Amino acid sequence: MGQFASILKQLRLQKGLTQPQLAERLGISRSAISMYERGEREPDTTTMEAIAALFGVDMNYLYGMPTVTFDDFTYALHNESKDLTEENKQKLLEMARLFKLAQQHGSGN
């Protein structure tokens, strides 16, 4: 798992969480968090998914692989649009472009 231990600790500290607070949010023991951060143990897939969701990163990031992160709006937009037809996805994209154009010309808030 290589970089996972240091990435987890960095994310926890950036969010201002203690090990016990992180453990509580994930529903696991503090000792598990401690072992993860020391590289002595690896979380199962379910726990890894929960960690990724909590910190707003994807699992590739936790594994130290290059990734793209999204803000809450982008993530929500992605989730809402993933089941749309290709035609409706194109319409949504065009609407976004129109909103951007209107905003650039001062008529949108």
Using brief descriptors, characterize the structure shown:
single chain, 109 residues, mainly alpha, 434 Repressor (Amino-terminal Domain), 2 domains, 66% helix, 0% strand
Describe the structure.
This protein has 109 residues and is an all-alpha fold. The chain folds into two domains: 59 residues, Orthogonal Bundle (434 Repressor (Amino-terminal Domain)); 33 residues, no CATH class. The protein contains seven helices and no strands.
Provide a quick synopsis of the model.
The chain is mainly α and 109 residues long.
Question: Helices, strands, pairings?
Answer:
Blueprint: H1 4-14, H2 19-26, H3 30-38, H4 45-55, H5 59-62, H6 72-81, H7 86-104
Radius of gyration: 19 Å
Write down the overall mean pLDDT: 88
Main sheet characteristics: none
Quaternary organization: single chain
> How much strand?
under 5%
Write the CATH architecture name of the largest domain.
Orthogonal Bundle
Poorly predicted ranges: none
Helix content: 55-70%
- The number of helices is 7
Amino- and carboxy-terminal Cα gap = 45 Å
> Structural class, from helix and strand content?
mainly alpha
CATH homologous superfamily heading of the largest domain:
lambda repressor-like DNA-binding domains
Strand/helix succession: HHHHHHH
